[in-house]
Amino acid sequence: MNKHLIAVALATASLTLTSCADESTAQSAPTAQHQPIDVAKVIVKPVQSWHTYTTRLESPQEVALMPRVSGVIDSIEFNEGDLVNKGDVLFQLDNRSFTAKVASLEAQVNSAKAALEQAISEATRAVRLTQRKAISTEQAQARTSTLRQREAQLAALQAQLTSAQLDLEFTSVVSPIDGIISRANITKGNNILAGQSVLTSIVSNEKMYAYFDIDERTWNSSFNDVSAASRQPVVMQKVGQDDFAYSGYINFIDNQINAATGTLRVRAVFADNSGQLRAGSFARIKLAANAITETVIVPDRAIGTDLKNRFVLTVGENNVLQYKLVTVGERYGSLRAITAGLTEGDVIAVNGPARVGPGMPISPNTVTIDTSGIAFTLGNSNNQLVAKQ
């Protein structure tokens, strides 16, 4: 009897210890923690498609300066690389021979004027004498002929004098335009030839042109209603810059499609009051299509690449990430348009698949997609592309 009671007591004690151990183990097991991930609801914005083209800037006016008379350079009147104005004297030629020629012709003109005055006097007297029949008709006609010869001689000498005065004026080589002057190709003391020697070059810097070619399909689908008079806005980025900081507009559209390339040549003009644009610079041009559409916008970093596919991770039931194939559109700063795959109200992992993958439960941290400082359409009041791209 005592042995039976002892066995029951030992069994009861064993069950009690086992129950306590199980309860202790359950209390010590940690709760599973999900990874915190930034998520955001996609935004829908009215956007215009951007088209990008490459070009090199051209000056509206560029002059290869050549002399209009031959001679020897006496002095150079500019600093290389300076801004020059129309009419500024740039090169001065030795003008002594030109001055002497002008003086000689002036003397000949004065002599011809005196001879003409005498011929006029004799012709007038011949008319009176003829009326009194004091001289023959032949003598009167001879005096009239002499008068005409003196008039022609004077006219010829005056033309030669005008030409010589112009040549003397051209010994001062002046700038024909406002712009930036290059270096002097020919220095003081050298002989130069009229219309052959290139003294220097001058490039206008008040504004710059950018020519680029738009393919026929893009032009017909996005810009068919654009004309030079509509001043279609464009923005430009120089090499080494992150922003499209320069605003301009289209001011020329060619009159035909290039049949060989299937493109249309257009020109944008950029005012350069700050002197930061230089002819020959490589640049990228962006212009926006006129059509505006409501489009889903997400951060560009939210988009992942899976072989040939582009995808985003959306937040589904129970905060489990889901794989969504998408079709991407234009980029707007740090954001990207999604043309297919997402709809308004979808919630995405804003940092993309960097640390997570589809099927993974997460702890969502809701944030807002920042669109400040990004232009999705043309500006309002001034019709300019106003934001960084």
Properties at a glance:
2 domains; Elongation Factor Tu (Ef-tu), domain 3; 389 residues; 27% helix; elongated; Efflux pump periplasmic linker BepF; OB fold (Dihydrolipoamide Acetyltransferase, E2P); MdtA-like_b-barrel; coiled coil; alpha+beta; 21 strands; MdtA-like_HH
Description:
- Residues 95-167 form a coiled coil.
- By secondary structure, the chain is α+β, with helices and mostly antiparallel strands.
- The protein folds into two domains: 45-58 and 206-366, Efflux pump adaptor protein, beta barrel domain (Elongation Factor Tu (Ef-tu), domain 3), CATH 2.40.30; 65-202, RNA polymerase II/Efflux pump adaptor protein, barrel-sandwich hybrid domain (OB fold (Dihydrolipoamide Acetyltransferase, E2P)).
- Helices cover 27% and strands 35% of the residues.
- It contains four helices and 21 strands.
- It has helices spanning 2-28, 96-131, 137-170, 216-222, and strands at 35-41, 43-58, 62-65, 71-76, 83-84, 89-93, 172-174, 179-181, 191-192, 200-203, 207-215, 233-238, 246-253, 263-271, 282-299, 304-306, 309-315, 321-332, 335-340, 347-349, 362-366.
- The strands form four sheets. It has a six-stranded antiparallel barrel with strand order 2-11-14-13-12-15. A four-stranded antiparallel β-sheet has the order 3-10-8-5, with no helix packed on it.
- β17 (309-315) and β18 (321-332) form a beta hairpin.
- α2 (96-131) packs antiparallel against α3.
- The radius of gyration is 44 Å and the shape is elongated.
Summarize the structure in short.
The protein is α+β, with helices and mostly antiparallel strands and 389 residues long.
